[in-house]
Write a structure and sequence with these properties.
An eight-stranded antiparallel barrel has the order 1-2-3-4-5-6-7-8. The chain is globular and about 35 Å long. It is built from one helix and eight strands. The protein has 128 residues and is mainly β. The chain has one domain: Beta Barrel (Lipocalin), CATH 2.40.128.120. Keywords: Signal.
């Protein structure tokens, strides 16, 4: 697999530190009644297919904070959780909408990511 030196984590870090950048979610799944309170305050390590990683913390019912492991830069984005399905959204440094979708099971998450510029890949996360 070809290693991408401009990996998603680097773009994510720059995107998330942009002042005032936010993404409004629409058409998200309904409340499954299970709530996501058990995830509030939890910290996760996400890794892409190239081995680049970042830690993120679920801050409340709709936002997360990310800290890059290689640079210490931080930022934030939004997420939705419906049952086992989770979606993270943010704007990258070039203004592209990016979306990480996947499933959560216990202390692990995994899925795919895509940006409106056509870039995409896979990711996985483990609760710290």
């Amino acid at each position: 697999m070809k290693k991408n030196s401009n990996g998603w984590t680097r773009r994510l870090a720059v995107a998330l530190v942009l002042i005032g950048s936010s993404v409004m979610l629409s058409g998200c799944g309904g409340d499954d009644g299970g709530g996501d309170g058990e995830f509030v305050g939890s910290t996760w390590r996400v890794t892409d297919e190239n081995g680049q990683s970042a830690d993120f913390t679920i801050e409340d019912g709709s936002s997360f904070k990310l800290v890059m492991n290689d640079s210490g830069r931080s930022g934030s984005g939004t997420y939705t959780l419906s049952g086992e399905k989770i979606t993270f959204m943010f704007l990258d440094a070039d203004g592209n909408d990016c979306e990480f979708t996947g499933t959560i099971s216990g202390n692990t998450m995994k899925g795919t990511w895509t940006c409106t510029n056509g870039r995409s890949g896979t990711w996985q996360a483990t609760r710290r």
